[in-house]
Amino acid sequence: MLNASEASMDAAAEDDAERQRNRAKLYAPPASERGRGRRRRRPPGMGMDRAQAQSLAAQLAAEDARLGAGG
C-alpha cells in the first residue's frame, strides 16, 4: 500500500525536491511518536537498578551451574 501511495505522490510531484518532501512525510513516524526522541521508553515499574541486575545475573549463574552439574 505504501508503494502505491509513493508512486501516486511521485507522479503528482513537480520536481525531485517535492518528491523528497513527499517521501519524508510518507515515512515519518506518527505525530504521537515524534516528540519523544529516539529512545523507546519503558512502562513504569519495568526498570532495574544495578543491584537488581547483579542479583539476577547471580541467580542465572547459579541456575546454569545447577543444570550443568545435573545433566
Report how far apart the termini are: 52 Å
How many domains, in number, for the residues?
1
**Most strands sheet:** none
**Class by helix and strand content?**
mainly alpha
Query: DSSP helix count?
Result: 4
Helix and strand element order: HHHH
Radius of gyration: 25 Å
> Uncertain regions: pLDDT < 50 for 5+ in a row?
none
Number of strands: 0
Q: Please state the average pLDDT score.
A: 82
Strand content is under 5%
The global form is: elongated
Helical amount: 55-70%
Biased composition (Low complexity): 1-11, 44-62
Region (Disordered): 1-71
Characterize the structure shown:
With 71 residues, the chain is mostly helical. Helix content is 68%, strand content 0%. The longest helix has 21 residues, at 50-70. The chain starts with a helix and ends with a helix. Residues 1-71 are annotated as: Disordered. Residues 1-11, 44-62 have a biased composition (Low complexity).
List keywords for this structure.
about 70 residues, mainly alpha, about 70% helix, elongated
Task: Set down the secondary structure blueprint.
Blueprint: H1 2-12, H2 16-27, H3 31-34, H4 50-70
Helix pairs in contact: 1-2
Region (Disordered): 1-71
Biased composition (Low complexity): 1-11, 44-62
